[in-house]
Amino acid sequence: MPAPTSLPADLRRPAYGTATLADVLPGAAAALGVPLDRGDVPADPLGLTTALAGARRVAVLLVDGLGADLVRRHADLAPTLAGMAAPAGDLSAPCPSTTPVSLTTLGTGLPPGSHGVLGFVTDVPGEDRALNHTQWRDDPDPDTWAPQPTVFGRAAAAGVPATVVAPYAYTGSGLSRAAYRGATYTGTVGAGDLAALVLRALRATPRALVYGYFADLDLTGHVRGVDSDSWRAQLQLVDRMVEHVVAGLPGDAALLVTADHGMLDVPAATRLDLDAVPELDDGVRLLAGEPRARYVHAVPGAASDVLDRWQEVLGERAWVVSREEAVASGIFGPVDPGVAARIGDVVALARGTWALTASGREPGPSRLTAFHGSLTATELAIPLLLAPGASLT
Q: In the chain, where are the structural domains located?
């Protein structure tokens, strides 16, 4: 393996085992008395056992796309979120900073290189096809593609009921099975329903670990942009949802609010349409990933030429390295050899506000307004906010 590769100054390496999304559920479970062995990583590096002292029930709400920079920028629109405590400061999303990777990182307490969900779209090695993790059902089998046990399963085995409250559409999906196996899945139909069902699950048993997932802020950002009236209105609705949960917390319960990634708007001037640059397709078997985090799989024997060509054409628009260099850099955490081939022969992570779209192959995603996936501070920084129940204050 080559020596560790330095990242450009504007990109950051997630601090796995110190302050990332992977540390949230283990800390919450530890506060509830669930024994967790995380190998060389501390069970609770965020200190949530102390922050949640006395809690018998903990809810973790993940708001898709609620980056820490965005929360601070719009504190006036989200007074409930702005008024919550921040027991561990900003955390980091994993790499790539995208929803399937982050949700599996949260659920398993592991970095991407250990759990195997390594991108929004990844190659299925040996099968000459790609897997979109948001459309995944049972092929490949989730129990073999991403078999790692989850924190939910460990909590349930320790006698702490674990409940996931998330959209009905994701019930039984491959991603839900990979990220949430071991929990009872309760489907939701909107923000009000999610808030009510999170509170119902908290009240149902004397001890509980409850997780809620809300997707609409991310969707609004992608379609309208994070600098839009639509996004700001959606943030206000999120704040009202959180306010409702906080007001209804049992006295011995606590709510943690976090996110899977931040987002940024991408103007037309910083979009490179890969389909308009034919030489970038020379020697390429499969283009995977997403516009700010590309995996390029080469035909046999062409990886070196593809790397050279992508580095030359993309220049300062992206950090372009080989799979081996990307793995050695630590951006995925330790990478299990059995999943390494899911990463492209070439990895291209966008810098600044650049996006590597593909208007012919990916017309829908290429038309979006805001993106995420790379390692800029705005994409990686996610909040961890705490509201305690009345008897914990």
A: 21-116+127-265+377-392, 268-371
